[in-house]
Specification:
Chains A, B, C, D: This is Ergothioneine biosynthesis protein EgtB. Four copies of one chain form a homotetramer. With 412 residues, chain A is an alpha+beta fold. The first copy, chain A, has two domains: 154 residues; 232 residues, paralog of FGE (formylglycine-generating enzyme) (Alpha-Beta Complex), CATH 3.90.1580. Chain A is 33% helix and 12% strand. In chain A, α2 runs parallel beside α7.
């Protein structure tokens, strides 16, 4: 039995679905309902939409005598699948006080039960298995969004509420930054193992890389603070034109969740609440604009996604907590589990890319424009979700994800 | 003991405060937290702000050893009083998932207890009484907003949830429309009785009125439907220029809460849910633009606020339910308790108007521009809140209040 | 022969039409084509639209065998008459580089010739005369707009070009401000003489006024500067709520055309170019927000339009130059020819107001909402255009007209 | 003497500068002043800015005793060089009625004279020559923009004025579409010849290409019309997500300059005015969204920029007229001189890219984000400006350039 089929087991299904509930457990029904910006969704909506995915793409197709949990949910919890039909307007997801959180939890329970029955009846079916597996990886993506979206919501509140009540300890000193060289040449890029991957990681194909070097770890808050204090946010020459527009018109003066205290000190809003800025931890919640400007300031650059993947191919995959931790150890550190790492690569199709037919094919391909690839994984990425060929993508201005920065430069 | 002091009694205080809780009782914490547009506030915010009013304008000033319930609430629940200081941004009230509804209810209970103690200690004090009374009338205004704001929120939901579960019966035929004549001449306008009034109803002063006539009742849905079917929304000549802009750019085709069913019939969203449009009940949720265009279409006009007040002076004040009812009986009907009635009068100061000194003076005066006066009261207005001199006011485009239309014309 | 018929004479027609050309003479074709904001029109558009008015409302109706100068002009130069049909979008008037200025001048010449022929053929015809007269008063309104619109355009140019090359001399000291009392009582308001007036000045009707006082002259730059220096633009308590919004969001710190020089001194952009702020001349280009805030600061208020008209009824009407002059002499000065004077009166219909039937009836009535009345006339108002009953109107935020401020207060 | 130095000769300078004047010759001063959208500049501004480039980057640096033509022009005609200092706001370029067109022509003449003197004095100087050459290529880019920007302006005018009075003949049938195969493998990309290139064409570097095929010619209007009639603009599955947003919110139904006639036929606005849509000529003024959707509809895709450059390397470079012509002949046709060809390649730095130091380095590098590369050249591109390695770039939504579409597909 291969890994894909294993992931599509009843136990795997239960584990992933349960994890989503655990993530929402510290939140009240009110917390789960509100939407702080069009890009972020309410937690309740995530709970329902991930369920909708199984109901719409699996039960509707395979369940004998299928009847929807609620006929209106097909529209209410459709995210962006034009092939499915109408969608509730994204910016109004936070106005759905009904169905209540309890009704959504009942929706989850009922769909879970029906999926379990279907799995029992059909077994590791060649049609069902890939869709189940896609549904679980899809749910894991929303698990990360639950944390980043609720963080954004809580950050709007002047009370700075904490998601997690555990204390947030100061990090040990970060390992010093070193440059790790790679020879380049003709390399193969894209998913290779037999396990699951998204369609955008295929086909595996050949690319030519010049010799390059990667920084051994992510840029820290302490390093980024030097950029701030050196006038980084007031020096147009360091910025891409579109980045400078954002800095000027939106009055950016520091990373997204940094705050100046009344005492003159720097603080950072985290899922543990507002804490003193920890200089040893990685700078995070950076836009691509800020990542690129910082790289310019140092004379380095961002890696391409192929450079990153080639370098990361053989490294162990770590899982993080609710905030990025400081780097430790030698070699290429912090590839996974701390911050997604901006690359200079625009998100586009690999040569020969073909999305799946039908609505499910809207998953990745239609977003391949004006977005940039991030590699690795973050502290909010669920265990088992990351891999070397994984291509995360966001617009260059996005700041509400756990996005950080690893430097690169030319030369072997 | 005059009426004012009576209203400021412990029993009156308790009754008004309890009524607010009763109005929020059918709603979940989620319902109470969401904000459907910047003009509408969450129910939880109304519950807190009305409490803030007593805490800030009474306890903070009169309570010995005053300590706030929560230091952040002074900013969080300040609506628009620049004299008090900073304000949480109005469009972001719906993001305040904390404090929770339970904490806000605890806030209410504690402030109520402290107010009761203060009233017991000071008695019908000349300083305290007017502020208590203002606070209660203020709370009654928010009771009406609780209903109109939550109606707006529920209307955004494709499930069309009902606030009230009671059935909504068809109305009996509305009384026929008659014209009631008034001679005009020199009349006195403004509050006269010893009871409470807002500062904007004073000073009582003289105005000269030409002979005029008022319609005996409000315009009904049936009558307004004729306007719709006669091309009212596609005939620019009927509309004020700014009204036609709204119609054109926002694609208005009918009153705000009317909906066309899949069966081709007309429906109306009410606090009882979506119901077939009742042709005998008053047309409501009209903007001033729509009210004026309808009047143009009939060859009549809107009354001025002085015409309305002069006509209404000696009539009984009725209280309504959750939706306007059909007119019955002879004479000038439906003055109170069904729909606020648009007048052609811009909201401005009466001759010699002077607001109270200090922050409390921001209550009315600073809004005397680009708003229009509505007279009477609506089905959502609390009992005891209406009076002939009452001046409600909203911008001409506002459609989410229970706003209707009584015709007027020249001549005795 | 009454004044109306006189104004509709060939000589009067020629004089008004010629004056429009004189006003555009100092401008290049480029100056005449550009549009600096949607509210302001290009001079070339004014030249064409005033001609369109005669062509559309007179020639099209009365000229035997009428053929338009150019079939597209009916749409291109229609301002806002829905009864005439489609309109070129207002914000795009500045993109009409064709027809050229020369073609528009040829359009004017041809229409003038045809109007002259029609006047010769029909004489002082009862149908033709009122329309001719209306067309000439309409053209005079656009003469004022030519000056205010081109001033706005030139003010956008960092070179601060002057419209007029004549030197701009310092004014003599303004007369001291005195209060002129009026008894009030029942007064008649509205146009009374046999001469021309717009429909919005009718019907003449009775109003009741309380005793009041008017300032003998307009507020000067020197006085307004004290308001600025006293923190007028940073004190919310002085402002109407909507005015404070404008101040805060648009960062208003002083009147519209005032500029701080690099030398720290105050300058004002005028049709004579940028000149040192003349403290003796009236403050002008004020919004109603600023006028009201200034009045609040002094403890006075703005007059109502009835107060103004009653006071001004018997005064001589003066004509100004390209910028307001300082007040001289005793009594009620500067009623006309310097700055339009904001009143607190919302622009609405007089009791019994009825617009003309057809498209021409769109002239005034449809704008009677959310605008405020200004009385008097300005330095840019053509000779012969002003009268005591004249009702000018603009939105409260408008700052590009020659709008100033005369104080009023209660009491005889 | 190499080509670069040759281009920097007095004769080359004169020829390029004269060509700019020839392009503006058919236009009036009014035509040259207006600005139809923030992305497009007035012709007068182009005339001045290209002159400013020589004055600022050459005269200011090299001319002994340099004095500016006008001290304000340094700011007025700075496009986007933060290193030079302040800039007149881009959306307000059309409000600069002063300096007049005549003054700008005098500015050109004076700077030309001073440049000629400098060239005479210094000869083919190693510092001067690259800047002169850059200035001339810069001017050629603006020559193309003069045509596309004035086309956009004229298209806003309901009179549909023609830039060129020459008749516009129907094209002969386009050559049939064939697929031209390429083997791919390791190829070298980037500028190679000794002649001039922009910094973004360097360094020449190695890339790996899979086997691919290119269409022998551009997509024609006739072919694109089939896409329109097949519901291309109403089928979300064909579009990138961002493209579908544009289609939906901006109601796109056909290419930018296509118009439906009252006779039901298709027309196209061209520099020759409004003409019947010529089915044999290339579809042009396409956004990348439309190009990509068309390719999806056919089952093909857009080429990458490397695929295009590798294929085009050895082909002759043709120059076009004022509108794209139909394809003729065999082999890879219409590479140059008809329409810029969208590629799927995001505009980014080549490996090792380094912009020039100082303000001149803002020319290309800072725009390397959220723009896409177009290859070839258009009918509006000046003779001598195109080359195989040339990288044009625009945002995916841009439609006002002569942008067309060549299909590609996988396989040798």
């Amino acid at each position: 039995m291969n890994r894909a089929a294993e992931f599509a087991s009843v136990a795997a299904y239960d584990a992933v679905r349960r994890r989503t509930l655990e993530l929402s457990a510290p939140l009240s029904a009110e917390d789960c309902c509100a939407q702080s910006m069009p890009d972020a969704s309410p937690v309740k909506w995530h709970l329902a939409h991930t369920t909708w995915f199984f109901e719409t793409f699996i039960l509707e197709r395979f369940e004998p005598g299928f009847r929807p949990f609620h006929p209106a949910f097909r529209v209410l919890f459709n995210s962006y699948y034009n092939g499915i039909g109408a969608k509730h307007p994204r910016p109004q997801r936070g106005l759905l006080t009904r169905p209540s959180l309890d009704e959504v939890l009942a929706y989850r329970a009922q769909v879970d039960e029906r999926i379990a029955r279907l799995m029992a009846e059909r077994g590791a079916d060649a049609q069902l298995t890939p869709l189940l597996e896609l549904g679980l990886h899809h749910e894991q993506q929303h698990q990360e969004l639950i944390l980043t979206d609720v963080k954004h919501l809580l950050a709007q509140n002047p009370l700075f509420p904490a998601y997690a009540t555990e204390p947030f300890a100061a990090a040990p000193p970060a390992a010093p930054l070193a440059w790790v060289p790679f020879e380049g040449g003709l390399v193969d890029i894209g998913h290779a193992s037999p396990g699951f991957c998204f369609d955008n990681e295929l086909p595996r194909h050949r690319e030519y890389l010049q010799p390059y070097q990667l920084a051994s770890r992510l840029v820290t808050n302490g390093e980024f603070l030097q950029f701030v204090e050196d006038g980084g946010y007031t020096t147009p020459a360091l910025w891409l034109s579109e980045g400078w527009d954002a800095v000027s018109t939106q009055q950016w003066e520091h990373p997204f969740y940094w705050r100046r205290g009344d005492d003159g000190g720097w603080y950072e809003f985290t899922l543990h609440g507002l804490v003193p800025l920890d200089l040893e931890r990685p700078a995070t919640h950076l836009s691509l604009y800020e990542a690129d400007a910082y790289a310019q300031w140092t004379g380095a650059r961002l890696p391409t996604e192929a450079e990153w993947e080639h370098a990361a191919a053989s490294h162990a995959i770590e899982t993080g907590a609710l905030h990025p931790a400081a780097a430790s150890g030698a070699g290429l550190a912090q590839l996974y589990g701390q911050c997604w790492q901006w690359t200079s690569s625009s998100y586009g199709p690999y040569p020969g890319f073909a999305p799946a037919p039908g609505a499910i094919g809207e998953y990745n391909g239609k977003f391949m424009l004006n977005q940039y690839v991030l590699r690795g994984s973050s502290c909010a990425t669920p265990a088992g979700h990351a891999r070397p060929s994984y291509r995360n993508f966001f617009p260059a201005h996005a700041r509400w994800q756990f996005t950080g920065l690893r430097l690169a430069r030319q030369g072997g």
